[in-house]
Amino acid sequence: MSVTSRAAPARRGPLTEFLHDEAAGGVVLLVAAVAAIVWANSPVRESYVTLWNTHVNVLGIDEDLQHWVNDGLMALFFFVVGLEIKRELVDGELSDRRAATLPALAAVAGALAPAAIFALLVGGGAAGSGWAIPMATDIAFAIGILAVLGDRVSAGVKLLVLAIAVVDDIIAIAVIAVFYSEHIHLGWLAAALAAVALVVVLRRAGVTHVAAYVPVGVFLWVATLESGVHATVAGVVLGLLTPAGMVGGRPILEQLEHRLHPLTSFVVVPLFALANAGVYLGGGALSAAASSRITWAIVAGLVLGKLIGVGGAIRGGLRTGTGVLPAGVTGSEVWGAASLAGIGFTVSLFIAALAYDSPALESQAKVGIFAASIVSGALGAAILALFAKQRTA
């Protein structure tokens, strides 16, 4: 995401910079995930558990380090997600109705199909609470694979994957807010809404200094956390409230994206992976995952559900004339993009941590997420590379 001034066209545009940061961030994310798995299975694996279970008290809020990352730092990540959603809705791929129709249909079908497959295979009970895990798409890894494929993949395919991922983020945020929040405390919820109203008042009063909004944003985060609604929702709300046009002669939204997107891509999300991807695979844990309905439901949901849901919705939309593909995208490449949507790493891990209190169930879910993401990434890359060869033959 970029904050490049519109008066300086020689510099990279917002989309170009966003794709570059996501691709590079995907590499750092992969390194962090591998490091977490190696650490959690090394002779010093107890230090991994001890570190992330260490409690820290800040302003009367007592959380272990893992939750400070998941509830605190990830709010910054979701703030950047909110900024990107706002920009795409106002001045991006989702601003044109016909261009937005297919990605929207694909994202909705690509969320419902995996959730339905999971529910069908797992059923209800404690295990069934993870039904939303295979709904998510990890844009960093997906864009990273597209970057590796380079010029063999058209810019249109990248735009399609990005647009699907943005709508996918909207769905994931709504699911987290509605289904994975704690018991609601109305007093704190009212305080959170008051903070949102104050942001709107400051905007209408013409306050343009970002520093004026920081204490309000911090209070909104605290109030949201204490209300029982997941704290990351506060970040999304602030992102969506950020003006997309020029304010006081400055492109505020682009400036925030430019400053914060590298921070979230190269620090926040890798830290999240380091804190959450460390799954102990010894002591029968891997065999337990291999025989777990949760593991296989997540694999089936991400690999097959995304392929059927995303690919089927796009092909159906094209047949009925309800939308158009970005320039340069062939009907065959749609299936490659659909497979890449099955890489559900960051947000899937996030939802798994919210869905399961049992370490054993969460471990099985994580193994399923890892396996499905590897299979979906390899399948998507293979499909896109194959059709790229056919196009140039």
Describe the protein.
The chain is mainly alpha-helical. It has one domain (16-181, 230-392): Na+/H+ antiporter like domain (Na+/H+ antiporter like fold, Up-down Bundle), CATH 1.20.1530. The chain contains 16 helices and four strands. β3 (246-247) and β4 (250-251) form a beta hairpin. The longest helix is centred in the C-terminal third of the chain and has 34 residues, at 359-392.
Second rung of CATH, namely the architecture: Up-down Bundle
| Rg, nearest Å | 21 Å
Number of strands: 4
Number of domains: 1
* Number of helices, counting only DSSP H or I runs of 4 residues or more: 16
Major β-sheet strand ordering: 1-2
Q: Which fold name fills CATH's third level, the topology?
A: Na+/H+ antiporter like fold
Measured distance between first and last alpha carbons: 35 Å
CATH class: Mainly Alpha
User: Uncertain runs with pLDDT below 50, 5 residues or more?
Assistant: 1-11
Shape: globular
Report the average pLDDT across residues. Answer: 87
Strand and helix map with partners:
Layout: H1 14-40, H2 45-52, E1 55-58, E2 61-64, H3 65-91, H4 97-122, H5 125-128, H6 139-149, H7 155-179, H8 186-204, H9 210-227, H10 232-241, E3 246-247, E4 250-251, H11 252-276, H12 285-290, H13 293-320, H14 333-340, H15 346-355, H16 359-392
Antiparallel strand pairs: 1-2, 3-4
Helix pairs in contact: 1-6, 1-11, 3-7, 3-10, 3-11, 4-7, 4-13, 6-7, 6-16, 7-14, 8-9, 8-10, 9-10, 11-15, 13-14, 13-16, 14-16, 15-16
